[in-house]
Amino acid sequence: MRSAFLRTGLVLLLAGIIFSGCINEKKPNEPVTASAIPEDNKYNEELIKVGFAQVGHESDWRIAATDSAMDTFSEKNGFELLYVDANNDPEVQVNAVRSFIEQKVDYIVIDPIVTKGWNSVMKEAKEAGIPVFVIDRMIDCDEDLYVAWFGSDFKAEGEAAGAWLEAYLANKGRGNDDINIAVIAGTDGSSAQIGRSEGFDKYIASKPNWNKLDEKDGEFTQSGGKRVMNEYLEKYDDIDVIVCQNDNEAWGAIDAMKTAGKEFGREGAVIISFDAVYDGLADVLDGNINADFECNPLSAPYVADAIRKLDRGEQITKKINYIDEACFQHEDNINSIVCGRRTIDMITVTWDVLLERAY
Ligand code: AHR
């Protein structure tokens, strides 16, 4: 992990630690968050009490998502935030939700570490009459138990990576070559991992000359990515493509490749990554990562708007809400990729693209 920890300064390791009215200063280039309560009625409104059970602080993406939630659910925006960083422990996360119910919050927001294990506590929230929103990763439970979900189409991200690799290899005259692919997966059982693997595997299955050597869990961390890459380098002599399911894992894989004296990116093994955070795109610009598929961390403002609607007595009709995402490449050689019925433009990373990056 590069600058992530330094950037936030507010990451909490202990579950149960509560933030009340923590306000981060807005950074330049940060996108507009949910609209603030007008100055004149700020002190007349009662704060809306929101409990947010966050995954952890494993990646730069996660830090950006936490920053956005802190900023969105701030006192100046009319919220009192109870925040728990579950440190990637599903049990801690479920207990956090239980504690929100006990504390009688008005709304609960969950970014579920893994898809499974939620039914009981979700039913408890429903019985207590507390509306639940799910963000980023998906949850595997009865849809009636939450109001709405806002997040990424992880399967579509995996498919886009597969479609880009197909186009890239064809462009390099390697369309019929045997291609050995090593995958560094994200947290096992998270919908981000499940979706990205499923989407990319669809392409592997359709190409007889693509061979998946291995897929191991790198826990969405730089150290995990490095550990798994070291294992792959010990085990496999010939790796053509390394698929890292987030930027932090890609940095770990790059560290391992550098130490082993192996060439990667523009010069060697193709590196595919997901998230497209600022430092990830900087590596795309440098040619260390060949292509990066965005995962948008800014879902909290959508939830805040939905909460305000509910508070006004309006209905939330759309349950599943995908956030727009883009695809980035180092070389300016693929204009667009076709994934099923979608045509997606590839954005070649330049300094201008990088400087506009919000996270
Ligand atoms: O759920 C989103 C994933 O979780 C992001 O790809 C990763 O960086 C994060 O930790």
Q: What does this 3D model show about the protein?
A:
It is a single chain. The protein has 359 residues and is an alpha/beta fold. The protein contains 11 helices and 14 strands. The strands form 2 sheets. An 8-stranded mixed β-sheet has the order 7-6-8-9-10-12-14-13, with helices on both faces. The chain has a 6-stranded parallel β-sheet with strand order 2-1-3-4-5-11, sandwiched between helices. Helix 6 links the parallel strand 6 and strand 7. Helix 5 runs parallel beside helix 6 and helix 7 crosses helix 8. The site of alpha-L-arabinofuranose (AHR) has 12 residues, from helix 2 and strand 9.
Question: Percent range for helical residues?
Answer: 25-40%
Q: Give the termini distance in whole angstroms.
A: 14 Å
Instruction: Tell me, rounded to a whole number, the average pLDDT.
Output: 90
The total count of strands amounts to 14
Structural class given helices, strands, pairing?
A: alpha/beta
Overall CATH class of the largest domain? Alpha Beta
Biggest sheet strand line-up? 7-6-8-9-10-12-14-13
Question: What's the main sheet like?
Answer: 8 strands, mixed
Could you tell me the radius of gyration in angstroms?
21 Å
Strand residues, percent: 15-25%
Q: The CATH topology of the largest domain is what?
A: Rossmann fold
**Oligomerization:** single chain
Which of globular, elongated, flat, extended, rod-shaped describes the shape?
Answer: elongated
Name the bound molecules.
alpha-L-arabinofuranose
